[in-house]
Write the structure tokens for this entry.
Amino acid sequence: MRTLLHMPLDPGSRMARILLAEKGLPVCLVETPPWREPAELLARNPAGEIPVLIDEPPTGGEVAVAPALVIADYLEEAYGAAPMLPATSAARGEARRIAHWFDRKFESEVNQLILRRRVDERLAGARRLEPEPYRAGAERMRWHLDYLAWLLDRRAWLAGERMTLADVAAAAHLSANDYVSAVPWSEFPTVKEWYLRMKCRPSFRPILADRLEGAPPPSHYDDLDF
Amino acid sequence: MRTLLHMPLDPGSRMARILLAEKGLPVCLVETPPWREPAELLARNPAGEIPVLIDEPPTGGEVAVAPALVIADYLEEAYGAAPMLPATSAARGEARRIAHWFDRKFESEVNQLILRRRVDERLAGARRLEPEPYRAGAERMRWHLDYLAWLLDRRAWLAGERMTLADVAAAAHLSANDYVSAVPWSEFPTVKEWYLRMKCRPSFRPILADRLEGAPPPSHYDDLDF
């Protein structure tokens, strides 16, 4: 059975889950906390990071694929249904550029200061960490949302006139931050409208149904008309 | 004319240059220090990072492509010559996994502690930075070289029996660190033998000819029989 080693609030894991669902590929989800360095994870991905897709491709055998962006390319090439990359190489480059933007820039400037620290707080038993990085992260979050609004003033979707990998990556990252109430939606109405379109997709529903014990999301989190 | 916004010691820029040379695509190199935030760079890549490839594809028009791994995919798809990714999706996944390993893991664990600090030192006028991060970076460097040696005990090239994007990425990162004398080759003979094979390729020669004013490389740096 196709398996994804993941964690519910990890943006890369969410991206992989949405892509699998868009392509209609069923998957068995296995929660795998990377900080415990489980042997199964290290055997499948020597970098010790999630997500890892363990696939049984139509051509036979078993293959472990990581990290998240490589899973995206793998799914694109191995399964034709619901393509997430446009047809021309210029448009593919633009969709990939924005996906990498979230994987690297948004990850280091926002996730590391907000989302990852919220998870650390939870692991440390709700002990509050110092507030300064949260403030810096919130400032960068606004800068990133501003950039998305700029793109969406010019295009129907982030990389052009069709939904692509760029939208999936961005929505995966924002959804995890939304779970910890870190997205000031009301200040960015065009981004909110775009996110609502993403949220309404059937591929998004399992993501929105995830709950962390003792840490519920804000009330608008899974509201499809927020 | 096809143009690459780059810096001589930037590993991602080196990777793009080697790929272009392997595919026989001439390119005009423009040194573009990202820390000066030049308008040309920000207009071509809103992330403000190098490398950026400004290409004039056979299909017409002009396209700006970034970051380094997206340039790799773009060149693979737009130009068929000298493919840098294997044929099967499992083998492609493995080559991409290792390329991402260098782009993210090696970058944060080694480059940020050694290479990027050496460049900072040079910009700051040879003022020596504190030694502790260098020691931590050197330790991680050995860990990474150990992993490469483990791979090369099992395979002729890093991702399998043929040279791929994985080898280009690894050699680009190691060559920049070698310029600042940060690679303990003598402790890792199999990695050294593999790197010598990479160094001997015509695509590598322009990289090895680069010189930073006032900061020469060690004597073995461009020796093809070191």
Summary: The beta strands of chain B are 3-6, 28-31, 52-55, 63-65. DSSP finds nine helices and four strands in chain B. The first helix of chain B runs from residue 11 to 22.
